[in-house]
User: Fold this.
Amino acid sequence: MSKLWFIFLNDRHLGPFNYKDIEIRFSAKKIDGDTLVWREGEATWNPMKNTPAFHQLLGIKEVALELEPEIELETEEEFIPSIPQEDIEEEKGPPELPPTPQDEELPPIPQEEIAPEEEIIDEEPPAEIVQLANETNQGNCGRGMKIIKIVMGALSLIVLLAWLSFFMFSASVEIPGKGLSPSDYQRLMKIVKVKSVKPRFELALSTNHKYFVLASNYDHSATIYLTLSSFSGKVLAKEKVQISSIAQMNDNVAIFKDLRLEDSDRIEKGLYMLKVRGLNTGLRIKFLKALRNLEVFNFIKCIREVNDHFLYRGEFILGFAGLDSFQSALKKYKTEEKKRRLLPVQEVLERYRTYHSILKRLNELLGKTLIEFNKRGAVKRFERTYINEIAPIYQTLTVENKKIQISLIESDSELSKEYQRLVNFGKQIGVLVSQMTGKLNQYRKLRKKSRLKLLREFQGKLNELEELGKMRIHKIEEQLSSL
Assistant:
């Protein structure tokens, strides 16, 4: 089946196609009745719906019968009103394409030049010769168009290779050695020389901790979005650290000076998740994307699959020469951090134990005073003993607890609450001592029964506070064990 038809689609001319090719494209909904078509012999481009050859394909029956007599009267004025206005506007859109000057001259050749040859060859049937000559001429024309396309494709390929060779030339890589340690500088230079299809990256922090240098085997110009997120428990700091920045990569190197820190006020040493997102902005990638829009180059994989975005993820050890030195430093930091966390808790525990000792001494002193109550000066001895032995320790401890509790409100709210409970416990002891002293001063002499009653009353309250203190001590000891 001869390929006679051309299609105008997306501001481009496609073809030649035979009827079957057009039928396949119509079934795939790549073209429709408004698509412009043309073949040799046609005066201009026409929509498929106005072309009788495709009426059966489009399912147009009645229109096809009405158009046949009008096609013969192309020179008459009656034909002009029958053309839809939208078709007239579409004829202005496509540029002047086939028939080309060569195409217009080639069809008449069989009639003007072959005709004299028919007169010379009188022995063979003229009709068969004419038919054979026409088919041969059409075949030659098709082969000529193929040759022209092959030549144009070859020239385009030569131009492509020339451009690629120009763009593949890369300048020498220069990594700023000033501000980097020698080991970091060598590490960055090494990654640039790595031969790999996938981009690889290495990052280094300047010695003054003010900027990062990123090196890569990716030799395109690109805008780089850098993100560093610390792994939980893998950084030498209590809180999580996240660093982000943007820079332009040229000649395999990007320098990040504008650093934005989140969840922390400084850069901490440790293990980070490195995330590099890139947008290629180089002239080479723009050229390849332009070639991707041309069907003639779609057979080249690097053009067909060109992509201007890329993403890289990896791990980055910040502040250490290697994994061993990092793990050793992290272990030491965790040990020191554990001690630092234990100290405040241990301090609270010791203060509860001091209060517990005060309660035991008060219990002993109360029992001795009530036994000797009827002796002269028994209550006075109780007061003197309390003032000289117990009160200095109690008062100093209670005042210190209150000061520490206030100082921890902003920095460590949980520890501040624990000290507040300790302050309240100390107040309960002070209130009980005041009650005991006031009650004992009310009597000069007491019978044995009354003394036993007072002893049971105050010893019961002292025992309750002792039990409360023991519970707090036990709870803190469990907390220390978990730490």
Notes: Residues 62-95, 99-125 have pLDDT under 50 and may be disordered. Residues 338-482 form one domain. The chain is about 55% helix and 15% strand.
